[in-house]
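Worked problem 6 (solution included).
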Amino acid sequence: MKQDLTIPHGALDGIEAFLRVAERRSFSAAAADLGVTPSAISQTIKALEARIGAPLFMRTTRSVGLTQAGEMFLERAAPAYSGIADAYEAARNLGNRPAGRLRINLMRGAVQPLFEPIIAGFCETYPEIELEIYADDALSDLSAGGFDAGVRMSESLDADVIAVRLTGPFRFVAAASPAYLDRHGRPETPEELRDHRCVRFRLATGAMMPWSFEKGNREIEIPVTGPVIVNDWTAANVAMRSGIAIGMLAEPVAKAMVQAGELELVLTDYAASTSGLFLYYPSRKQVMPKLRAFIDYVRAHLPNDVTGHGTEEAHARTRKQ
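Solution. The predicted structure is:
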């Protein structure tokens, strides 16, 4: 019996709009992303809901949420749409030409040290690539979000991804403004932080980031308190530079502020090391020319004090160097 592979006319209309509204939880934000008006997005979603025969979103004046039908539709539509997008990109880049939109999902704290040194040169070198940088501290599902790759520290990655080292290992260090330290003193051991004002960082999970230190083979975790809680590294840096409290940040990020006299490092003998930053993508995903161009460019052009050496590609559980 001959199989009917005909897709009903208009069956795919509105899928991209639906996925973007579901991701952003906002009609206006989705409209801005897609370059259309909020009214156009609303009409597109209404038409899709009419074809499906069920509402997909719960709308209020303050928020947008998915209905049960919307959750079910998202679960099936997102990977299917991602597969269609991959097929389109594979055909488009058949001639091995780096082109198209490259969506990178990365932790907010990596934006400045990773992209500031290379973004101008990359965009000039590859004018046919449209680079989209999506800052997000949650560990997002790349396929569901329509991302080509993500950037995270290796400790947070699953075993079933391909990971490419972008930076060498670096330390998380405690720092404060010289004015704060002149007023409150300079702690000499991590335990003394209990008597200091500290900037606390709320993770995407809702938990507070622990303050961890190392001395020899011993790991030290200190519960801290303070007047400021943030969920963004830029806000944490502002709080530290303004003299409110001591904070924790990646040492490569602290370097420029220390050189400018805005911050002073403390407890450096106890600073804990991380494995560094890795670009990762699903192991089943073909490396498109646009992504390969990005990987090669970043590895070649990051400054020497940021880059490190490691295996080119490895599974997450086996790549710590």
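Discussion: The chain has eleven helices and 16 strands.
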